[in-house]
Design the sequence.
């Protein structure tokens, strides 16, 4: 069975990207994946600082997250767009998790060879696409294979109904297609390794 981790690059309670990550988690579970939804608000960490790392190693929450990431075959990341880039929260989390904290540990074990589907919901008309370009680059640097297909949802405050389902059937079908592909590809990668 394939294990997929779902999270959003926002800590805001009513984040539309959290809504998307939770909806994707529910749909992936229905497709047969083992799923975990992660709220990054529960894993607060300081901004990455090399001096802090040298003095104290990784923060406890970074170690906990690294273990969680390592236990999954793939990720579904819903990131808001901040001034044309992905969220600083995601950058900080990935920066901490890419660091070694034990002797002989491979610093990229939480990422290397894993698969990711990326998505963004934005209140604007571009749907957060500019932020996904830079997120794709960062994931690649970490050894994560970002799927070619991505999901962008414009006018995000009007995208969900009262039950947090997507209103636009075409966008819902795109999400379903991306999730099926993520699960299928992660399964095949598992079989090879």
Sequence:
């Amino acid at each position: 069975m394939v294990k997929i981790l779902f999270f959003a690059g926002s800590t805001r309670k009513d984040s539309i990207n959290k809504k998307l990550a939770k909806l994707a988690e529910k749909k992936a579970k229905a497709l047969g994946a083992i799923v975990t939804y992660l709220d990054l608000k529960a894993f607060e960490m300081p901004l990455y600082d090399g001096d802090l790392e040298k003095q104290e190693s990784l923060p406890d929450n970074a170690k906990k997250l690294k273990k969680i990431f390592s236990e999954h075959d793939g990720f579904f990341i819903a990131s808001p767009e901040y001034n044309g880039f992905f969220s600083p929260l995601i950058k900080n989390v990935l920066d901490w998790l890419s660091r070694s904290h034990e002797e002989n540990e491979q610093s990229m074990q939480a990422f290397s060879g894993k698969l990711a589907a990326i998505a963004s919901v934005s209140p604007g008309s571009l749907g957060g696409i500019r932020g996904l370009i830079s997120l794709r680059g960062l994931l690649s640097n970490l050894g994560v294979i970002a799927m070619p297909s991505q999901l962008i949802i414009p006018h995000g405050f009007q995208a969900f109904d009262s039950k947090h389902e997507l209103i636009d059937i075409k966008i819902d079908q795109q999400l379903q297609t991306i999730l099926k592909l993520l699960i299928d590809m992660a399964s095949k990668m598992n079989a090879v390794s």
